[in-house]
Design goal:
alpha+beta; 2 helices; 14 strands; about 20% helix
Length: about 210
């Protein structure tokens, strides 16, 4: 009887997982902005859901600036500047931050989109600025697709003494309107987990018979 309870428990848990989230994840590992004169900037077009439409544009140089620009009506989370200034620095979110429609309500971050670039890192004679300067974090993203608004994250790290960034990957929630946790990646498929649970239960039963 015990092994059937284990099987049912695994089936319930995996079924609940599939209902909670359906995350699409694209891991990578490359440096953006490791360039020098006469090519001061390196550009990257980010198509979150690989549908052929650019959702965000990234730019980075080795020694003065890196940032993000939202295409169309898409947005990203920033730490807003004090009025009357508009915009702000791109927020470096920690792992576990809930990215969704309410992210800009009860937190210091707020959703923002502009024709201009917002800074990951800016290096000036007066100092170094930006949440990602020599630091690692997640960028909260909101983008529109054919079936509605989706939420995702981009994982980046600012390189030492530079405005270049290392991009580790990005992910988004495939169900429109559903938020995503920064750093969340897809769970193993329900079928795989169910099979593992069934094998474990069969092993327990076999040991019991012995």
């Amino acid at each position: 009887m015990r092994h059937w309870l284990i099987i049912l428990l695994v089936a319930f848990l995996t079924g609940a997982t599939s209902l909670i989230a359906d995350i699409t994840y694209c891991p990578t590992n490359f440096i953006l902005g490791d360039v020098w004169v006469p090519q001061p900037d390196e550009l990257f077009s980010l198509d979150m859901d690989a549908n052929g439409t650019v959702d965000f544009s990234l730019a980075a140089g080795n020694y003065y600036f890196s940032g993000i620009h939202a295409e169309s009506e898409n947005k990203y989370l920033i730490l807003p500047s004090l009025p009357p200034n508009i915009g702000g620095r791109v927020a470096a979110l920690g792992s576990g931050y809930l990215i969704g429609s309410n992210s800009g309500e009860s937190n210091p971050e707020e959703w923002f989109g502009s024709d201009n670039y917002s800074s990951f890192i800016r290096i000036l004679d007066t100092g170094k600025y930006g949440e990602f300067y020599e630091s690692h974090g997640y960028v909260g993203l909101e983008f529109d697709s054919e079936d509605g608004t989706h939420y995702g994250w981009l994982e980046i790290e600012g390189l030492t003494h530079s405005s270049s960034i290392r991009i580790y990957g990005w992910a988004y929630e495939s169900t429109s309107g559903v938020g995503i946790v920064a750093g969340a990646i897809p769970e193993p498929s329900s079928g795989i987990l169910f099979t593992i649970g069934a094998i474990g239960a069969w092993t327990l039963r076999k040991r019991k018979f012995r």
